[in-house]
Amino acid sequence: MFKKYWIFVAIVVSVSGAAAQNTQSDILKPSAAQLAWQKAEIGVLISYDLPVFQGTPYNQAQNRITPFTNANIFNPTKLNTDQWIQAAKAGGAKFAVLTVTHETGFALYQSDVNPYCMKALTFQNGKGDIVRDFVNSCRKYGIEPGIYVGIRWNSYLGIHDFKVEGTSEFAKRRQAAYKNMCEGMVTELCTRYGNLFMIWFDGGADDPSKNGPNILPIVTKYQPNCLFYHNAQKADFRWGGSESGTVPYPSWSTFPFVFSHAARQDTIFANNFALLKTGSPTGKYWMPAMSDAPLRGHKGGHDWFWNPNEDHHVNPLDKMMSMYYGSVGHNSTLILGITPDNRGLIPNVDVQRLTEWGDSVKKVFKTPIANWSTKNKDYTINIPSQKVFSKIVLQENIQEGERVRSFVVEANINGEWKIIKEGSCIGHKYIGLLEKPITASSVRLKILTSTANPMMQNFAVY
Amino acid sequence: MFKKYWIFVAIVVSVSGAAAQNTQSDILKPSAAQLAWQKAEIGVLISYDLPVFQGTPYNQAQNRITPFTNANIFNPTKLNTDQWIQAAKAGGAKFAVLTVTHETGFALYQSDVNPYCMKALTFQNGKGDIVRDFVNSCRKYGIEPGIYVGIRWNSYLGIHDFKVEGTSEFAKRRQAAYKNMCEGMVTELCTRYGNLFMIWFDGGADDPSKNGPNILPIVTKYQPNCLFYHNAQKADFRWGGSESGTVPYPSWSTFPFVFSHAARQDTIFANNFALLKTGSPTGKYWMPAMSDAPLRGHKGGHDWFWNPNEDHHVNPLDKMMSMYYGSVGHNSTLILGITPDNRGLIPNVDVQRLTEWGDSVKKVFKTPIANWSTKNKDYTINIPSQKVFSKIVLQENIQEGERVRSFVVEANINGEWKIIKEGSCIGHKYIGLLEKPITASSVRLKILTSTANPMMQNFAVY
After folding, report:
1. What is the ipTM of this complex?
2. What is the reported pLDDT for B267?
3. If we measure between CA atoms, which residue out of A291, A286, A277 comes closest to residue A402?
């Protein structure tokens, strides 16, 4: 059987047109940081900013053009970042990302270059540093800390889509000063809090030759192992093209060009972000898809920030499970938005749902019905009799690249091999959901095409 | 003799066209705050802002359009506001005004509404409050404290001549937020530091119905006895039309309309600010002229802010004396700009000049050669024999208004009355300098015209 699969492999012709099979050195592979990010599978984005304290629902369009005249509304009386991270961990997150600045421009730390920060507050006598609290809590609970820096919008300083309004010399100098300030913040954030798992410039940090600050050299210098997302020069992963918390199938980890929200909009906006969703198996950049969505996405909700009286927006468990299958199960890392409230705590209902969800994922995938061992010479699994299964999990060893291009999974049912799943991309993880549980004596994977020797790491049924 | 003057008075016809002599109630009079301001005669403006620390000379045009990207250059290692106020007092100042904000937008205190303030500094661990230090020093040395709030320009927030650049909805909201912030700062400044002698909005605070914040009600509410300078609604005094530290003669305390730099520019800009310089004896508003100039105004200098290596700009003593005569001696209050350096001290050479100047003024006017007493029924002074004099000082009791419209001073020299000075305005103080010292047996003042009974308070020769 094993040899049979190798026949398929041998006839692969690279879609890029290369006549021969790729050599090892041709194969795109993730960086160590990208690999860790994909293996993490789930992270949380914790959004916290002045609007949480405004007493009315967050409205992004308004928020972007309405400066907060009183930053001192920021006063979380029960602030507890341990509780945030415990909630994230209960949901299965392996990393957490905090909005150090979002679109108001207010910064959740002691910046020496951005006065519109916690220094400006009466809260904690102007000495608060939620970034430090957050990082400390992450380390305490074994969660990797990441930071989100919003520089595309800054309602306080009058920045709209990276730009200062106007064409005067004054506007030009304010633009230069803003770039300078952003570089200063990135330097502070990259040097004060130890190793960061990732840094996220929402909407990208634009092109440093245009309105973007020159932040890549700063991150590279001080945080060489940090995931960088993203500017016109570099993106260690890509947005998955929706805020549904899922990507369609297939979603390849490779992409044709360096992705930035702020660049090549014609291409990436086409067909409702189709290219972001699918990636491209012939892409020249390793740039896997992030699936992102807020936990509060139900009953009309889509809340990256906490709003008063909207506990009913918390997704039900089945929706969370679907999100898991449609992201992690589609070779994409899921980043779930969670929302500390105006007390400074993740609300109870959210904590409860995260816990249920984390428990549920763990329970479903606790013990496979059967699984293949890398020691096996072929991709066949014998199923214990009387066991039913409804999920197939496939994983490539993506440290060696994403090699599989097409596959089928067949089940031996009453002595007859039947295809129960057909697919293309496997990548870090493919979870195939069957329409209904089945019984079979054995299951086998056929890799039909691949760019080089497939390097499978896992094949199991649940 | 006395009756003779009354003949002149009796034939006065008000220039405004009123047929009869003004009644007491018709006569414009200063408020208590204005009276105190005119009686003070000399104040200082202490300018202190980020440019002091930039290492290069202050350039106002550049400063207005170039945000400071690093406020932490502000780090005066020997800051001593006592020393500032002692220097001001040595120069004869009775009040001192501090630039709480100038054109960078940086605020020298712990603002809760303007994050670009001392909270943003590492200096004094972000807890510094130079406004408080300054006010405390003023009170310690018996100097009246005033504050200067620059809101017309704010390079940090992108405010140019009161305005946010652009026409977008965002720009409109930023404009509204800026007005709101300015009102917040004025509220803070009017409520935190006890009674203020004056509040100075440089370039005016514009019209609240346009781009100006609505600050008059705030000042009126919290500082009802504070001199207000100025917006489109109110000005308790006026700029004297130059930064020479002098006004021409005559300079009346009354003015035809509420003065604002930002309003009625056609009228006030005409003839090199002629109307600001002279005022108008028929003006409907009591609004005496301020003469302002920096102490460092020599050899090409005109330095409201300290610059490195420019000690030679400090005015020589004779220029300071001329300034005194051309301001205080012309019925105008002199505000002298003094400049703490990057250590936080008024430089030694400035302190020395202020001391020399203060001593010199005191010495010149310590003891009159002769002076009239209000108990005298006419305005004649007998001069002790062999005494020479070169200066004539006249003062009206301006609490009762500025009544004199024309006068002559005559000296009896060898039995013959000769006119030695002719003038129009007296107001708070007129100092007439004779071309050379003279001897005379007596000197008399003839008030030729006035709007009502003259109310002289002082007539002396030195």
Report:
1. 0.89
2. 83
3. A286
